[in-house]
Amino acid sequence: MSRYRGPRFKKICRLGALPGLTSKEPRDPTPPRFKKKSQYHTRLEEKQKLRFHYGLTERQLLKYVRIAGKAKGPTGEVLLQLLEMRLDNILFRLGMASTIPQARQLVNHRHILVNGRIVDIPSYRCKPRDIITAREKEKSRTLIQNYLQNSLNSSPRRKLANHLTTQPLQYKGLVNQIIDSKWVGLKINELLVVEYYSRQI
């Protein structure tokens, strides 16, 4: 199972802000400072940030790192692009869900259409010009309307990345292009993640 069921604040306090894991914020969001961290400790923390933010298992993340290693371009950037183009993450970025676990639930329960077809796989890789909409069922529209309303009222309001366009009144989102690494919503050093997995690729 890719779902993390443990205490979320504990992870945020240890690793820093993880907007995809929970919409709530702890009183003290700064992670505790250790006197001295080993290189392994630093790499492990960066890997864990990535894992918990996107809600992946160890095996899934390793699979993405291997795919990114075989692709053209810097492995770290390609890895972030692969993770950002997942359907559950795109829904979260569009504001149709307040967290990535909620987005995953919407997809699993068949509330989401991609290019007019039901997709119930959260890891589905979106491509440029994909149109993401809610099903025309009343339940699907009500759920997504609540999430959209919450995201519009949230303070500070999340800025929409330039690779996405949203039409909230039509329950619709459009993927314009592959995301640029500067728009990734997580402060992370992806090179350390690649270094962590370097012996396993």
TrEMBL record:
Species for this entry: Erodium carvifolium
Start and end residues of each Small ribosomal subunit protein uS4 N-terminal domain: 3-84
Record keywords, A-Z: Chloroplast, Plastid, Ribonucleoprotein, Ribosomal protein, RNA-binding, rRNA-binding
Gene Ontology molecular functions: rRNA binding; structural constituent of ribosome
Pfam families: Ribosomal_S4, S4
Biological processes per GO annotation: ribosomal small subunit biogenesis; translation
PROSITE patterns: RIBOSOMAL_S4, S4
Primary role: With S5 and S12 plays an important role in translational accuracy. One of the primary rRNA binding proteins, it binds directly to 16S rRNA where it nucleates assembly of the body of the 30S subunit.
Protein name as it appears in the record: Small ribosomal subunit protein uS4c
UniProt-listed Gene3D superfamilies: Ribosomal Protein S4 Delta 41, Chain A, domain 1 (1.10.1050.10), RNA-binding S4 domain (3.10.290.10)
Residue ranges of domain RNA-binding S4 in the record: 85-149
